[in-house]
Amino acid sequence: MGRTRVTLADVAAASGVSVTTASLVLTGRARELRISEAAERRVRSTAQELGYRRGTLATRPRSGRSQTIGFVLGAVESSGLAGEVVKGAVEAAYRHGFMLFVGESGGDPAVERALVEQMRDRRTDGIVFAAVGTRVVTVPDGLRHGPAVLLNATAAAQPGLPAVVADEVEGGRAAARILVEAGHGRGVHLIGAGPGPYDVPPHGIAAVERLIGLREVFAAAGIEVVSAHRCPKWTPEDGYRATRELLRLHRPKALVCFDDRLAFGAYQALGEAGLSVPGDVSVLGFDDHPVASWMRPRLTTIALPNQELGARAVEVLLDVVERRRLDVRPPSIQRVPMPVREGGSVARPGV
């Protein structure tokens, strides 16, 4: 009888960790996702002792598939959020019996091309090409040579390439509805983008679509945005500066910040001006960045469903692989809902 093949689940069980943790260690993601060095050493040692081998051409199943997926991640603006996306992708891949190979490009087009070529050379069944922060991207030529899905991105020159993105327009609507339902009919200001559809940071899709959703609901409710402050970067410093500038001219009742980091800066500026949240000014954010949970009061924010985005991208890719066999074209864009994370930063406006 031939030797029984050691699986990832065997390594995880023998190491006393979850399958996800074992997979992350063996695909080189342990440090970024804050897996302890002790756990990493234990998994690697156990894998070596058991003779575990990740999927290769030599162990390719009879179906002709390698049971592997390539995952190319662009510039990492926030390793925590990127880690959540990868975790969702790893778990979805494992559920379907696939291994995920992850490579980071740092946003360098040459590195992106090299990663895609290497993954094609390994005969991966498909590639997820992911950006951190929804944007229009120029994709490497190698993505045309096999199944591929974009994540948090749409292609500048290949609009037919399947994509998975957050439903930013509906996220904008949800943010506006929160303020409308709280009774905010005047004194609303935007921090980060607007007022026009082109007053947004460069290369960003999220700002444009969030603005569309906000404007739609505000217009239907008869609410006119008093002012909007475009920020080239969505950092706490930008939020602080934009809010200080706003306070020189206006006494706001509500701020819609296009990113939680902008909201963090806005909190500081409001506090310096002697204004409380939400007693004097209601504040809303987007993304559910880790900083949102540390703000006092906790920020109400429209969350990016990072783990679900990663998982959905893998699901769509596997669907693409199957549809290619059947010569059927998959839907071009799938939008994942953005849930509301309730905090204490929105209240009915005072007199």
UniProtKB/TrEMBL annotation:
Residues 6-63 form the HTH lacI-type domain. It comes from the Bacteria. GO terms for molecular function: DNA-binding transcription factor activity; transcription cis-regulatory region binding. Gene3D superfamilies: 3.40.50.2300, lambda repressor-like DNA-binding domains (1.10.260.40). Keywords: DNA-binding, Repressor, Transcription, Transcription regulation. PROSITE patterns: HTH_LACI_2. It holds the Pfam family LacI. InterPro entries: HTH_LacI, Lambda_DNA-bd_dom_sf, Peripla_BP/Lac1_sug-bd_dom, Peripla_BP_I. The keyword Translocase does not apply. This is Transcriptional regulator, LacI family. It comes from Lentzea xinjiangensis. The lineage of its organism: Bacteria, Bacillati, Actinomycetota, Actinomycetes, Pseudonocardiales.
